[in-house]
Design brief:
single chain; mainly alpha; disordered C terminus
Length: 262
């Protein structure tokens, strides 16, 4: 754990149902670079075949040791789905269960969401899983530290913002940190919503580096100066006419007040 949160929290995970065939829905709109997983339910013959696999036998035994209970038929189905449907290796599934349990999550529903998240993010090995966990911790630390948030991890809604900035928008830590700094400067308090508005604008403007932000700021100031209304030049007042000019202003003010009162 880091910052008081699990490093395995999935990125915008789907919310699958208990039915194995409904774990992940693959549509024609799925990006080509996304891994395609099998969505059909495991047939009884396939289940029996997998249960004869030495790797699966060992995996189910280890899972029961970590979870401290005998697996239910539904939980066994999910474990087999990780292996046969998601294409995860037995070693990776074992590491998945180990790390989830170490972070206080024994729910198979939670473990399933993490498994799906790993597959969606191209995690195929234990080393890749560790790298992803490290990336989550870095992103969380960057934001919490920039906002001055201590002794707690981000709430689920806050974590969604962090994952959005780092994974969906693909921003580096220094850009996210700059948005947080500007948020504090403008609002004087942590505001994930305000920071999100900044980063969303930068994303729409194809910002990739801090230098891009400086260029965008310069263009903004330039456009703002062009639309700024011209200032009225102060009247030239000679030293000899100071009293007269002051009285003129006073008379003008009185006349304006009289007109308003009528």
């Amino acid at each position: 754990k880091l910052c008081g949160i699990s490093l395995l929290t999935p990125v915008a995970p789907s919310c699958p149902t208990d039915a194995v065939q409904d774990e992940i829905s693959v549509t024609s709109e799925q990006p080509k670079d996304q891994p395609v997983v099998r969505t059909e339910a495991l047939t009884p013959d396939r289940v029996n075949e997998l249960k004869q696999n030495e790797d699966i036998i060992q995996l189910l035994y280890v899972a029961e040791q970590y979870l401290g209970k005998t697996l239910s038929p539904t939980e066994i189905q999910k474990m087999l789905f990780f292996y046969d449907g998601l294409g995860m290796s037995a070693d990776l599934i074992e590491y998945l269960i180990e790390t989830c349990v170490e972070n206080g999550h024994k729910s198979m529903h939670y473990i399933q969401k993490v498994a799906i998240s790993w597959v969606e993010n191209g995690v195929e090995t234990i080393s890749q899983a560790k790298e992803q966990a490290a990336a989550y911790s870095r992103n969380c630390y960057t934001v919490l530290n920039a906002f001055g948030i201590k002794n707690r991890g981000p709430a689920s809604s806050e974590l969604e913002y962090i994952n959005k900035w780092a994974d969906t928008y693909g921003f580096s830590a220094d850009i996210i940190q700059e948005a947080c700094r500007r948020t504090i400067s403008a609002t004087h308090q942590p505001s994930f919503e305000y920071a999100d508005s900044i980063l969303t604008k930068w994303y729409e403007c194809n910002i990739h580096h801090l230098t891009d932000i400086n260029a965008l700021d310069h263009e903004f100031q330039k456009e703002r100066s062009l639309h700024r209304s011209p200032t009225t030049k102060p009247k030239n007042v000679t030293r000899n006419l100071n009293n007269f000019e002051r009285r003129s202003y006073d008379m003008d003010s009185l006349e304006e007040q009289l007109l308003k009162s009528n």
